[in-house]
Amino acid sequence: MVVVAGSAVVVSQASAQQKTLDLKKWYVLVNRNSGKVLDDRASAKNDGAAVVQWSRHGGPDQQWRFIDAGDGYYRLQNRTSGKVLDDLGWSKTAGSAIVQWTDLNGANQQFKLAKSPNGYVRLVNRFSGMAVDVHNAAKANGSGVVQNRNRGGADQQWKLVPVGSVGSSGTPTAPSSSVPTSPDPSSSHPSSTPSSTPSPVAGGGSSTTRFMGSSTVLIGGSVSDASAAAAPFDVRYAYVHSQPAPSSDYYSAARCHDDWSGWWGCWNGSTTAPGTYVTWRDSVVAQATYKGSARPQKMLWTWYSLRDLGDAAGQGDGPGEVKAINRLDLLTRYLNDYRFFLQKIGTSHEAIDLEPDFWGYVRSLGNPHQVPAQVSGANPTDCGSQENSAAGLARCLISMAHKYAPNTAVGLHLSCFDWQTNTQACVKDYANLGAQNADFLATDVSDRDAGWYAQPAHGGSDHFWNDQKAAAALQFYKTMAESVGKPVVLWQIPVGNMAQNNTLNHYKDDKVDWFFAHMDQVANAHVAGLLFGPGQQEQTTAETDGGNLIRKTIAYHNSGGTALK
């Protein structure tokens, strides 16, 4: 029985701890089994967009409100997309996908709240009679949300936590660490079309005269299609990360299955072939325009899947990742997945940023040659001659990229958490990792806006730049570039604008202005690309910065750019 009184609904099915559902409030839905929350993956806004679970960070894509559908049923509307939870295709099959769709008030979009212990509820679909659960009771970020027989398991139980509260998953905001948001399948992040560009990098020693076909510093980022067309951006980037496909059957299938949606290769849905996440963007980039004229952009993929392999090993970030690479079963699946990803890129002219953070975890354990990894056994075809260590794995990933995606530049991510005090140790470790075999180094400037970090609720720390801080960072980039003879690409540069008011998606930062005002210094540090974008969903974006990044990019383009050095 449900009693409606104004905007508050008293739900008799729920326990005393979760008695009142306020139809004016937004809620975070916390899964009892995983502690993760219901998430509109990558803030997608298209019909059929996937719903997954993700670590709670407080973004609007993790906020849902309940719309009364009558007879004790509700529609769950996402705050970012405005779409509602939907039993895809009016399915009555166990394991079929739960997605987002335009609110049609259909029975397949209506759910009742069924009682479960300790303040949890089950979401039971009106049409199918099945409960919303996490596929295979997974605990990893990005795991798919499906419907299944209503059996009352912990993976089918959700706690409704009003936005602004601290629920069972901790604080509403993410911890201050460089953890990317979930990847974006809904906006087109195009890659380059095949061209006559020679090698990814030309030039020798510490100088770079061309990179990804350009003789000037590239400008790009994580932007929407509209923003990408509003300025002459050179590059767009997107993440690729999920646990690897469970079997080789995924790679050869003609179409994805509904229950494969948690794997990156099927993020575009069951009507597409595996790997469409990559090939679709390749087709989009061929149509990129600026001022009505064709202007194809490049694509940088951030391959970030060892984080998910760490989840498969049962320990997540850091410890789980280094444990996972020494497990033959897991590393075999990982390298098979990586090969399939490279094959989807094929002959396109793109770039790959390999495994942010991971090499820093390796460095914390000592010499990369001494960190064990089952490289030769996991991929005897491509890496049978590599040593069984983290250093061997780095070399394996680089050589595989050159083999299967020969026109694509591959970059080892520069994760030197102690760079300010121990740059020479970083130089030594990256030589041991084989960074000289890559085509560039990639590194993140800051995952969040300085104005966000400055707030007391987020630690009150100073992440704004001045000339002294900038000079120190550029000297580090220059040292690393010269140590391996390859350029550096700066990725995940915060988009904050000093004219903003330090509210959600409108935080201050000074790095966009600083970089564009000091492009000669950027080039002198052998920086070949500036890629702007947030590392967490509360941050300023190119769509919320008041047009600052777009204006600066247009002005830079009109100036003729800055030559690589």
Automatic annotation (TrEMBL):
Gene3D superfamilies: 2.80.10.50. Pfam families: RicinB_lectin_2 (PF14200). This is Lectin. It comes from Streptomyces griseoruber. Transmembrane segments: none annotated. InterPro entries: Ricin_B-like_lectins, Ricin_B_lectin. Residues 25-161 form the Ricin B lectin domain. Residues 162-207 are annotated as: Disordered.
